Description:
Elements: H1 2-23, H2 31-53, H3 63-88, H4 91-102, H5 106-118, H6 123-149, H7 155-168, H8 170-182, H9 190-216, H10 227-248, H11 253-263, H12 270-277, H13 282-308
Helix pairs in contact: 1-5, 1-9, 1-13, 2-8, 2-9, 2-12, 3-4, 3-6, 3-10, 3-11, 4-6, 4-10, 4-12, 4-13, 5-6, 5-11, 6-7, 10-11, 10-13, 12-13
Amino acid sequence: xASVLNIILPVFALIFSGFxxxxxxxxxxxxxxxxxRMVVWLCLPALLFExxxxxxxxxxxxxGFIATYGLSTIGLFCLTLIWRLRRSGNLADASVQGLSAxxxxxxxxxxxxxxxxxxxxxxxxxxxxxxxxxxxxxxISVVCIEVSLQNEKSLVKAIGKxxxxxxxxxxxxxxxxxxxxxxxxxxxxxxxxxxxxxxSAATGPCALISLGLFLAHxxxxxxxxxxxxxxxxxxxxxxxxxxxASYVFxxxxxxxxxxxxxxxxxxxxxxxxxxxxxxxxxxxxxRTILFSTxxxxxxxxxxxxxxxx
Length: 309
């Protein structure tokens, strides 16, 4: 419990920092939106580009783990999307909510936890999980949102508009450019790599502060409860992952345990970034992140107990 608490406490501290700055008037009413825009247009694209441009493909060539974590994560995203789409009838909102139920905080919490539990060997599954969540799952959600926002009745025009919107979207373009860079087999120029690392490091803290700023607002109107999304993320996700890891793909013990631990992580800030950027229901997403992070104190502790037996 103490190990989990040490990793989760900085997350709450950053959220509270944003909350306090807004309530004390140190940051204005538009600060959450502006900080989030900086994350979406600068920090997150830098993170995505660097992740793909510097990845060592030999380290992530683990088809069983990729299948296990990818199927459980993307599968729950799709199931939640269908469930929420039937309730709201809005693909953009359903996409953000599906992301909230499946987007694990693999970078900010997953990497230190895996290193703590498995040593240096834990870096590989954590890196793979980060790429699946941040590059693949995030991109799928962005595509769904862009499709939803097009009102064209003509299929050809709609496809053209979606394609153009995706080409202009830095979250989609950055990992593709990063993957293309790896084909050159050249290291990133030192100055560029340092710039990307500085911007990447700001992604998590800025997104969490922006979340705190958003929570400090007194939101009008009613928003749905986040209980269902939190349950899917903290209970259904690790259960599905463990079944796939142990009984379908029969992963080696360390990889199966890492898959379980990474899937038991709370919701990361990615869904909130998209909700703010596309003007969707940020209140539901923010509560999901907050309550799943709080609940993960229990679920992660349970996972660590069974891993340590």
